[in-house]
Amino acid sequence: MSWLTNFVGPTLKRWIAPRVLREAQWVTCPKCGATIFHRDLDANWRICPHCDHHLTLPAARRFDLMLDADSWARIEIPGATADPLKFRDARRYADRLKEAAAQSREAEAVAVAHGRVDGMGAVLAAFEPQFLCGTFGAAAGEAIVAAAELALLQDAALILVACSQGPRIQDGAFALMQGPRIALALRKLAERALPFIVVLADPAFDPVFGGLLRQADATIAEPGARLGPPPADPFAAMDTPEFLAPRGGVADAARLLAEGRIDRIADRRDLKAEIAAVLSVLRSPFPSATVIDYPGGGAKRIDQSGADA
Ligand SMILES: [Zn+2]
């Protein structure tokens, strides 16, 4: 009997336990406190069915949500140097990277795909919130620059879904250097009149995103998305699956809209249609000023540079 207890039993447990655990996974809505079965939440694009709170959405699902079915393919991101500072806090950075890759099934905190939005060419760079809480390191900068260069090559629009807990402390100055690199890449897009659209998803706690809003032709935020400085304790942020409250100066989507810093607040389920409406105007061959009729209601008059007219 010993082979049964020593080998078969543990092997069966190893196979069955994760499946049982996954089936039993319930998620608590951070806003209304309702307990939601993970499959119901996933089927609703991770929007709480009780209060419409938008929980973080994995990058892979962003591609399904915002790009035409069967039109998109991922691109491989040029690798930034992993662990350039040989950083170690409570754990080694290299170990954190491996763990994050296994947990999120992404190679880094930004994933890029190219495809079509309602038939119009687009490159989509999306933050992966499960990869070290979407912290912004050197690899994220590489990925966004690569996405901008691909948009130039393909004469396509660039869409960035910004969702991050802040700069990645382990990349140190390499993380902070990414802002100017991205700004230069975006300038080339603007020179070719290729649209650049930013989608703010909660939480966008990186100083880089504030600068990106100024370069974007259109900025759409998900309801409740917060933009602001990174959390006071970056290590705690990486160990916390849901969000920490960062230092002061945080604005939510409603305040950003009232201050005129963003153009729209759109439900996640309407994002693709809203982006398609913007792109159809910005990519129109007619040079005159025109009006965007947003599917979610309202309209905005703009000229071809994307500025308010
Ligand atoms: Zn809720």
Describe the 3D structure.
- With 309 residues, this protein is α/β, with parallel strands linked by helices.
- The chain has 2 domains: 1-53, no CATH class; 57-268, Alpha-Beta Complex (2-enoyl-CoA Hydratase, Chain A, domain 1), CATH 3.90.226.10.
- Helices cover 38% and strands 19% of the residues.
- It has a 7-stranded mixed β-sheet with strand order 3-4-5-6-7-8-11, sandwiched between helices.
- The longest helix has 22 residues, at 2-23.
- The protein is globular and about 80 Å long.
- The structure holds zinc ion.
- The site of zinc ion has 8 residues, from loops.
The shape is: globular
What integer is the average pLDDT?
A: 82
Task: Using the 3D structure, state the CATH architecture of the largest domain.
Answer: Alpha-Beta Complex
Percent range for β-strand residues: 15-25%
> Uncertain segments of ≥5 residues (pLDDT<50)?
none
CATH topology of the largest domain: 2-enoyl-CoA Hydratase, Chain A, domain 1
CATH superfamily of the largest domain: 2-enoyl-CoA Hydratase, Chain A, domain 1
Bound molecules: zinc ion
Any idea how many domains?
Answer: 2
The number of E-state strands comes to 13
Main β-sheet: number of strands, strand sense, barrel status?
7 strands, mixed
Which sequence of SSEs, written as H and E, runs from N to C? HEEHHEHEEHEHHEHEEHEHEHEE
The helix/strand class is alpha/beta
State the helicity in percent bands: 25-40%
Rg over CA atoms, rounded to whole Å, is 21 Å
Total helix count? 11
CATH class of the largest domain: Alpha Beta
First-to-last CA distance: 81 Å
* Strand arrangement, major sheet: 3-4-5-6-7-8-11
